[in-house]
Amino acid sequence: MTPQASYGSGADTIPEYHYRLLQTNEVEAAHQLEMACFTPEAAATLEAFRFRQLNFPCYFWSAWSEDHLIGLACAIRTAESACEENEVKGSHEPQRDGMNLCVLSVAVEPDHRLQGVGDALMKPLVKQALNDHLESVYLMCEEHLIPFYKKHGFKYIGLSSSNHGGLQWHEMKLVLSE
């Protein structure tokens, strides 16, 4: 899968981005991107990223511009009905049989935002959840990202009780099966 990002109509060139599953040897680069996109308090730990890639490799997508990592999206399967129970602090219990997916991180380098990278990263996560016959996809996001996730079919649930990283989070849910 090699979707192209798009600029506004005045762009002379459109960069080509490549999307694929993140490999084990790329976890540290993914963590560096996470640290660049989130405050240290809100960013996941390197151990959490290793856990995600090891236990849920089909839910850890990456975006590349040539050989440079510019975006990532990762999630874990869970039996929980909300993501706050799964806040990443480096310790999860694998719930490979869980019927819900909790999106834990979507990060895109600032210079590559608003070019379709986040959209392209969300699609394979949801597609894999559908292929795995999961019931729903949950996430927590900051208020300014609510319209982005609504565009992907997520419904707003409400304010989260989580204050992970000192931020105010909003819960959203995409129902995959009734």
Structural summary, described in words:
GO terms for molecular function: acyltransferase activity. InterPro entries: Acyl_CoA_acyltransferase, GNAT_dom, SNAT-like. This is GNAT family N-acetyltransferase. With 178 residues, the chain is an alpha+beta fold. It has a single domain, classed as 3-Layer(aba) Sandwich (Aminopeptidase), CATH 3.40.630. The protein has 4 helices and 7 strands. A 7-stranded mixed β-sheet has the order 1-2-3-4-5-7-6. A hairpin with a 2-residue loop joins strand 2 and strand 3 (68-78). The protein is globular. The model is unreliable at 1-14 and 85-91 (pLDDT under 50).
Please identify which CATH superfamily we are dealing with: Gcn5-related N-acetyltransferase (GNAT)
Task: Indicate the CATH architecture.
Answer: 3-Layer(aba) Sandwich
Compute the number of structural domains: 1
Number of helices: 4
Q: Numbering strands along the chain, what is their spatial order in the largest sheet?
A: 1-2-3-4-5-7-6
| Overall pLDDT | 82
Order of helices and strands: EHHEEEHEHEE
Helix-and-strand structural type: alpha+beta
The count of strands amounts to 7
